[in-house]
Amino acid sequence: MAGRTAPPTAIESVLSETRLFRPPKAFASRARVPDLASYRKLYAASVRNPGAFWAKQAGALLWRGRWKKALTWDPPFAKWFVGGKLNASENCLDRHVATARRNKVAIRWEGEPGDQRNLTYEDLLRETCRFANVLRGLGVRAGDRVGIYLPMIPELPIAMLACARIGAVHSVVFGGFSAESLRDRMNDAQAKVLVTADGGWRRGKIVELKAAADAACAGATCVEKVLVVRRTGRDVPMTAGRDVAYEEAARGVPTRCEPEALDAEHPLYILYTSGTTGKPKGIVHTTAGYLLGATKTMEWVFDIRDEDVFWCTADIGWVTGHTYVVYGPLSVGATVVMYEGAPDAPEKDRFWDIVERHRVNIFYTAPTAIRTFVKWGKDYPARHDLSSLRLLGTVGEPINPEAWMWYHETIGGGRCPIVDTWWQTETGCILISPLPGATPTKPGSATLPLPGVVPEVVGDDGKPVPKGKGGRLVLRKPWPSMLRTIHGDPDRYVSQYWSSVPGSYFTGDGAHRDKDGYFWIMGRIDDVIKVAGHRLGTAEVESAIVSHPRVAESAVVARPDELTGSAIVAFVVLRGGGKGDNALEDEIKAHVARTIGPVARPAQVQFTELLPKTRSGKIMRRLLRDIASGAKQLGDMTTLEDVAVLERLRAEYGEE
Ligand code: WT7
Fold first, then answer.
1. What is the pLDDT of residues 429-472, one digit of tens each?
2. What is the CA radius of gyration of the chain?
């Protein structure tokens, strides 16, 4: 199993986790869902009659035209709220500006150097309208794709909401991705306009976004215009006829722009994510179902209140940022904190400094970040008053119980419930999670499904496995915020998600359920690796390695890593055979970082003369994983073509 998968022994140890944390009374008494019985009632209603249930929930959105049918299910293609009209940006902005929230701060932004901007809902609406008008002026129309490659600055949500306002489909690419990754995504999406910046701040250095955007556009001729937002104030080369300085283009442009009434199923965005093959998948989310999922989970899981300050630390380049920095919190009219830079800039207490100064009430981050904080030590959080916090969340990979306990005690002061939220780029919003006022939590378990979500753990035959047994995590029923397809490749949508367990959506994760029905996610069982919460396809990393002129063949696997969950180990066969030296190892690592982005850099490169293969020529990754994780006993080798290869590899592993 790839990724941070637990070997069978670890499943046992997880099962022995018996600590149970009940929602604190003070929290539960004010919560929307105040006890387990209320959750069970809500859940039962949602599965008894999903149509009626979601019809009622849909009242959480502002509609421009009434929909006819909650769900149209032509497996595996779903349409939700067909016939309905709405606009996501109107839901996130105008509807609040029409109320007492008009002057409420929507975004409390902080740059890494310490500069700050507060945007009220009215400010955000005006800026969004202005941006939308600029996009229109560049020829962007409903249905056109717009690439966004920005640092974590307010213009990022503004650009997204501006697209949503005019019906353009945004495709945000994480600012840490390379020019090549950006180019491939722009080409796949056939983006007409790319929004970027003159740079961004990260650990005191400028991230050269514009240079990467230029390199990407050289190979993505679909991009007609590049809109350049000013962030660092440095001069960057501008290509005449193509590049447009945003501030100049925006001068004198009206700050009003009518939101377009769009179909419920109008695509809202495409977000690329790694799969089991080399080519990233453009996950398509549509307007109404996605926004409803984002909105309801803000209420159910984060129990958001009007007076809360909400901080999800994810970069908006990932789905977590799309849903819980932008669409979810803004749809419910919350105040969000947004931070541009690194957690250790200028010092390792930056996050706690932000929590204290902005009086953050709800804090949502990744296990890999928590493990880093554990490593840095308690002194950093101890410098700050964290008493404003009332709820903590995690997402992205399984959290080990020790990290959970540290989070609970050191950050949460023992008083904040923790929501361990399981979901994926494809699911659009949280699907399995405690409700903080209702669900007793067990460190390491994502606990129970949200209303309308029907997960199950099944064996290879697709049949449910007994409680306590591991298997594949599937979803039996469609849900509103589900992906609709893979952009430009509906066949891949079907084969990737709906074929391995017929009739069900296969998540790619392994899991088991305990006697209380709680879900324990064990990590990926396909060829996807989660490094520091970032999702990478082994095939993608391999193709980057093989593009190095000296490499003939490569196989990439994950080994457990204390900090990042998993680390990448690359087994590499050189052209013409022979062993590489340290310099070549470094060169290959740098090559991968350049080709995909620093997140994909292998932790280790192991040169080998041959890769272990089956007689039919398939690389036996399972055995490589055993070697990389230092397993004493290698798995079944009966199908291996040449046992000697493996023995040699095992003996050599880790040697210089
Ligand atoms: C994969 C999806 C959607 C949030 C960010 C990640 C793993 C996510 C948890 C959790 C155990 C988790 C799964 C999943 N994952 N949350 N709470 N416990 N594992 O989105 O990059 O699409 O990755 O992240 O393996 O399949 P993503």
1. 999 999 999 999 999 999 999 999 999 999 999 999 999 999 99
2. 24
Q: How confident is the model at residue 655 (pLDDT cuts 50, 70, 90)?
A: low
The CATH class given to the 528-652 domain equals alpha beta
Q: What residue ranges in 292-437 does DSSP mark as E strands?
A: 309-312, 335-339, 362-365, 391-395, 418-421
Residue 6, pLDDT > 60, answer no
* Residue 135 and residue 170 in contact, taking contact as beta carbons nearer than 8 Å: no
Between CA 255 and CA 131 the distance in angstroms is 8
* Burial bucket for residue 298 (CB in 10 Å: 0-12, 13-18, 19+): buried
Cα 459 to middle of ligand 1, angstroms: 21
Ligand 1 atom nearest 523 alpha carbon: 25
Q: Interior CA angle at 270 toward 183 and 105, to 5°?
A: 110
Both tokens of 529, joined, read 């690796």
The atom number, within ligand 1, closest to the CA of 421 reads 17
Ligand 1, pocket-test mutation among 315, 407, 424, most atoms within 8 A of CB: 424
Whole-angstrom distance, CA of residue 296 vs CA of residue 302: 9
Residue type, 174: F
Tell me the CA distances in angstroms from 542 to 66, 528, 559, 587, 646, one per residue in order: 49, 12, 16, 15, 20
Atom 10 of ligand 1, residue of closest alpha carbon: 422
- Cα–Cα dist 615/561, whole Å: 32
Rounded Cα distance between 159 and 387, Å, is 34
Distance (Å) of CA 236 to CA 196, 229, 309, 362: 12, 11, 36, 38
SS3 of residue 360 by DSSP: coil
Q: Give the pair of three-digit tokens for residue 149.
A: 């490659």
Ligand 1 centre from 521 Cα, in Å?
9
Instruction: State the closest ligand 1 atom to the C-alpha of 399, by its place in the atom list counted from 1.
Output: 18
Smallest CA separation from ligand 1 atom 24, residue: 396
> Tokens standing for 52?
């009626």
The pLDDT score that the predictor gives to residue 615 is 84
Segment 223-236 mean pLDDT: 98
- Contact, 278 vs 543, CB < 8 A? yes
Q: Which residue's CA is the nearest one to ligand 1's atom 5?
A: 396
Single-letter amino acid, residue 488? G
Residue 19 φ/ψ region, left for φ over 0, alpha for ψ in the -120 to 50 degree band, beta for the rest: beta
d(CA 392, CA 371): 15
Tokens of 513: 């359920």
Rounded distance, CA 63 to CA 262, Å? 10
CB atoms within 10 A of CB 124: 23
Residue nearest to atom 18 of ligand 1 (CA): 398
Contact present, 71 and 79 (Cβ < 8 Å): yes
- 554-594, pLDDT tens digit by residue? 999 999 999 999 999 999 999 988 889 999 999 999 999 99
Which ligand 1 atom sits closest to the C-alpha of 420? 17
Q: Residue 425 C-alpha to ligand 1 middle, in angstroms? A: 8
- List, for residues 597-627, the tens digit of each pLDDT value: 999 999 999 999 989 988 888 888 889 999 9
Nearest residue (by CA) to ligand 1, atom 8, is 396
Residues within 6 Å of ligand 1 by CB? 273, 319-320, 395-398, 420-425, 446, 507-509, 521, 523-524, 530, 535
Q: Are 534 and 599 in contact (CB under 8 A)?
A: yes
- 261 CA → ligand 1 middle, Å: 33
List, for residues 132-152, the tens digit of each pLDDT value.
999 999 999 999 999 999 999
